[in-house]
Amino acid sequence: MKKIFYFIAFIISLTRINAQQVENLFIVTEKGTKSISAWQREGILYVPIAEFAQTLSINFYENAATGKVELKSNYFLLKTTPRSPYIIITPRSGSVSKVYQLPTSTYLRNDETLIPIQFSTDALEIIVEHELKFEKPNKLIFGKKNSSPIEGKQWMYDIPDLPPTTGYDITGISITEKVNGTLISVHSKSRIPSYFSSLKDDELTIIFRKVNADVQKTNRGEISDLIHKIDTRNVGPDVEFKIKVGSNYSTSEVMNVDGTNDVIITIHNKVFSQTDNNQKKKEKWSFDVVVIDAGHGGKDPGAIGIDNLKEKDVTLAIALKLGEIIKKEMQDVKVIYTRSNDTFIDLYKRGKIANENDGKLFISIHCNSTKKKPTDASGAEVYLLRPGRTEEAIEIAETENSVIKYEDNPQRYEKLTDENFILVSMAHSSYMKYSEKFAELLHKDFDLNLKIESRGVKQAGFYVLVGASMPSVLIETGFISNKEDAKFLKSASGQKQIAESIFSSIKTYRKFYEDAMDAEL
Ligand SMILES: [Zn+2]
């Protein structure tokens, strides 16, 4: 019989931690000694789990946005999340997870998830397939190889019995804190046929129809400033969740997680009100930095069009022209280029550059293309970061995302599945209305100003937009595989017209943004 156990609680530690890098952790294997960075806090040594994996050539996934890190061996997956006291091991061929509870939480430092190495050896042994011994102060010693590789199936019977949760549909919840809000995963063994939610007097009520809940495992108190309390009751054939929210509450959503019976409740805070003082808020959110991202570059030419026209050259030319116009016409706004010459920049770094410079708007410039050259397809498109709606949009995102093949560590990008999109959209939800507005303006202005047709606003999952924590759009300025478009995109005057049209949208957008900020702050 196949049993599914869910791990139940995340203990959330929001305390800011001051840690010092003391030294390295030395990893002693048969092949020699390697060292990775390590930080000491209250006598416990922490190491970045991703660096650990990289150094030992273990396959891993790192989601820079959430801090989630996943290590893969032949038979097992190991998952860690920041600020969690759990390490979860799942056999790749099974669905039964084993949860290792640490005496202390993992934490996030410079976007890296750090684990307390001395308490993590039992879980790591399963992945490295060797015995591990931590020796104070900073040595991790590989012992003998696990005699025969443990297969997922065998191991499943080895799990200590978890308390039975039979009899209930909803067996527990887990809570994850995000910068922009809180995510409550409601774990259910059976499909929840329907649900509805309402908000009244700072209380969010969600009714799950025709299921029951193990309320001892779903009630919580004192969660955060955003969520004060969760009370659950079985009412007749339904379950009622009453979630007391704080004044920081902005919106919430209830979503199904594809492929499971779980439901996720996302509760968003007012991201634009995080600083206390009004003047400071105004400064923090003032429209002072625009980030222009010229697609591709260096060893990555992007699409190749008519007469060998390279996408990377067109995008750079438009980006630089746009930057020049902003510098001249909007002198109080700083222009940041993710690249200003023919160099290769990793996709995730482009968002990082934007965030580090406190950008207020992120504009990624690209050119569309088709396999068939020349093509009849022509026109400009503006893209928002959302699950792709049409096959064509998904294909374009896949093409643009495929440039990660030029990067040293393409594994860092987590596939944008529906579940990941929930996390991503959560991080972007507070900016979405601004991204939408800007996209709409771009479309209208292109339509008005350009001889190139404007094909409208579309949506798909572009990695380059995932990383930028600000309103952001991606523009496909035209088809370089179309003769007319290519001619226009190649010409200095065409590039200038596109840049001018984008600038005119920025001007209108700025007004919209500043009015909205005035109202919100
Ligand atoms: Zn491109």
Overview of the structural elements:
The protein is of the alpha+beta class and 521 residues long. Helix content is 29%, strand content 33%. The chain has twelve helices and 27 strands. The strands form five sheets. The chain has a seven-stranded mixed sheet. Helix 6 packs across helix 12 (492-520) and helix 11 (483-490) packs across helix 12. The chain starts with 19 loop residues before the first strand and ends with a helix. Mean pLDDT is 83; it is low at 1-18 and 148-165. Zinc ion binds at residues 295-296, 302, 311, 366, 400.
Q: What's the topology here?
A:
Blueprint: E1 20-29, E2 32-41, E3 44-48, H1 49-55, E4 59-62, E5 69-72, E6 76-80, E7 86-91, E8 98-101, E9 107-109, E10 112-116, H2 117-128, E11 130-135, E12 139-145, H3 152-156, E13 170-178, E14 181-188, E15 195-200, E16 203-208, H4 215-218, E17 220-221, E18 227-235, E19 238-245, E20 249-256, E21 263-269, H5 278-285, E22 289-294, H6 311-329, E23 334-337, H7 347-356, E24 361-368, E25 380-385, H8 391-401, H9 418-449, E26 454-460, H10 463-466, E27 472-479, H11 483-490, H12 492-520
Parallel strand pairs: 1-12, 22-23, 22-24, 24-27, 25-26
Antiparallel strand pairs: 1-2, 2-3, 3-10, 4-5, 5-6, 6-7, 7-8, 9-10, 11-12, 13-14, 14-21, 15-16, 16-19, 17-18, 18-19, 20-21, 25-27
Helix pairs in contact: 6-12, 9-12, 11-12
